[in-house]
Amino acid sequence: MSNYLNIEIPELALAFKALSNPNRLKIFMQLLACCPPGTACSITEAQKFCVSELGKDLDVAPSTLSHHIKELKQAGLLKMQRRGQHIDCWVDPAKVEALHLFFKPQQDCATPELSRSHS
Amino acid sequence: MSNYLNIEIPELALAFKALSNPNRLKIFMQLLACCPPGTACSITEAQKFCVSELGKDLDVAPSTLSHHIKELKQAGLLKMQRRGQHIDCWVDPAKVEALHLFFKPQQDCATPELSRSHS
DNA sequence: TAGATAATTCGACATGTTTCGAATAATAGA
DNA sequence: TCTATTATTCGAAACATGTCGAATTATCTA
């Protein structure tokens, strides 16, 4: 069974599973958030945090934190890159956009273009 | 820790957990879909299916189907109402809209406009 | 090279999820 | 009222998840 969007069911389910744990959801939201206090905001560059920064508000062991971030990465929600001792994490904008589209109210099929324009 | 949108973390996590199971995701997508084959499309009325219709493509026992639909309902994704022998199900448009907003690319913080409401 | 910091892997354990079949409840129609 | 249909509840079994501590890997700095 195929999807109406550019993302398939197992892939979607995996993303939702990654976001179904409150700790992982907090990690994701921290990366998703724009202009957190004391941070310069850039439109072009995604928000980046290293692993330990992402665990500061979480109250879990480092091994648990690592596990959660790995799950988010395997679900395609995060990208990661080592920077010296640290490993930077940021959201994959394409995945966020795909999920944004998934939940787009699908009521534009009756008329070609309606007044409700998101984008 | 509060959210930047009008939906809190436990509530969000519950919705994502409900959608993390491929069978439940298929159920949700069937309800979300606009203009399925052989069905008249209405903008005002949400797409409705009864429980057994939702299970047709699923290959699970009726008890399992019932359980999944209950989970979707408890997560606030579905609404239900009995119609004779059947029980109709349809998506909660408000919840879909909230999730749509959650994944909205947040790059409007550079502009001074402060339209987003903090709870 | 040695020690410190950051992050991951591994094994273990408690808890949660998915699924089923059997039993039950609610409704429609004869 | 009796039977068929639709859907739910319950208990049980198999499987998956979340968490930790200990050990390990990678990098930086002295």
Structural write-up:
The structure is a homodimer of 119-residue chains. Chain A is of the alpha+beta class. Chain A has a domain at 9-35 and 44-98: Arc Repressor Mutant, subunit A. Helices cover 41% and strands 12% of the residues of chain A. Chain A contains five helices and three strands, in the order ααβααββα. Chain A has helices at residues 9-19, 22-32, 51-54, 62-74, 93-102; strands at residues 49-50, 78-83, 86-91. A three-stranded antiparallel beta sheet of chain A has the order 1-3-2. In chain A, α1 (9-19) packs antiparallel against α4 (62-74) and α2 (22-32) crosses α4 (62-74). The first copy, chain A, is globular. The model of chain A is unreliable at 108-119 (pLDDT under 50). Chain A binds a DNA duplex (30 and 30 nucleotides) through residues 21, 23, 50-52, 60-70, 82, 84-87.
